[in-house]
Specification:
This protein is α+β, with helices and mostly antiparallel strands. Helices cover about 25% and strands about 35% of the residues. The protein folds into two domains: about 35 residues; about 140 residues, Jelly Rolls (Sandwich), CATH 2.60.120.10. The protein has three helices and eleven strands; from the N terminus they run αββββββββββααβ.
Length: about 200
């Protein structure tokens, strides 16, 4: 009787080990299927988006975004957008990204940024870093402008911009705050006024 009991325990152990291995292999295969990371370089033409574009915003401003590098290309590592700014005097409310750092590179025009308590005027050729968990906002000063915006990691920013572009109405501040929240951000203040 003892021999059979030991054999049963060993068989259960082996069966459990095989089941765990199968689950692990299935999970890895699923991860590979869900990932669309490319193993080839690619080019995105000026004025075009890789997957989405142009994305025309509503609510916070009427700017146009072209997705240059998607989070899908980088397994969520980062995303890069080109922003064509057509909303003089408008920008974003003071908000916090809980999970992403942001980098803005000004290509054309003039902008005004706030990071925490610090304020900066930004001109073509300049770069600004906005760390996660620090309140920030920006406003377009010039009539037109253009910036490259990088989010690291990509997070839900692609979905955020698509959601805002698909609205069939100008959203209220409460609606915009909820869209920010759904995308891993929190609105903590009003848009930045130009000083």
């Amino acid at each position: 009787m003892k021999l059979n009991f030991k054999k049963m325990k060993r068989n259960k152990f082996i069966a459990s080990l095989l089941a765990a291995s199968a689950i692990s292999l299935t999970a890895k295969a699923t991860d590979r299927k869900q990932s669309s990371r490319t193993d080839k370089g690619f080019k995105v033409k000026a004025g075009e988006g890789r997957i989405h574009g142009p994305i025309r915003l509503k609510g916070i401003n009427s700017n146009i975004l072209n997705l240059k590098i998607s989070g899908k290309d980088t397994d969520g590592g980062f995303a890069v957008f080109e922003q064509i700014s057509v909303s003089q005097g408008k920008g974003t409310p003071l908000h916090v990204h809980h999970f992403q750092d942001e980098i803005f590179y000004v290509i054309e025009g003039e902008y005004y940024f706030q990071i925490g308590e610090d304020k900066f005027k930004m001109y073509a050729g300049e770069t600004i870093f906005l760390p996660k968990k620090v309140p920030h906002a920006w406003t377009q000063v010039s009539e037109n402008g253009k910036m490259n915006v990088t989010f690291q990691p990509a997070g839900k920013m692609e979905e955020f911009f698509i959601t805002v572009s698909k609205l069939d109405h100008e959203p209220t501040q409460k609606e915009m705050a909820q869209i920010f929240t759904d995308s891993g951000m929190t609105v903590v203040g009003l848009p930045l006024k130009i000083e």
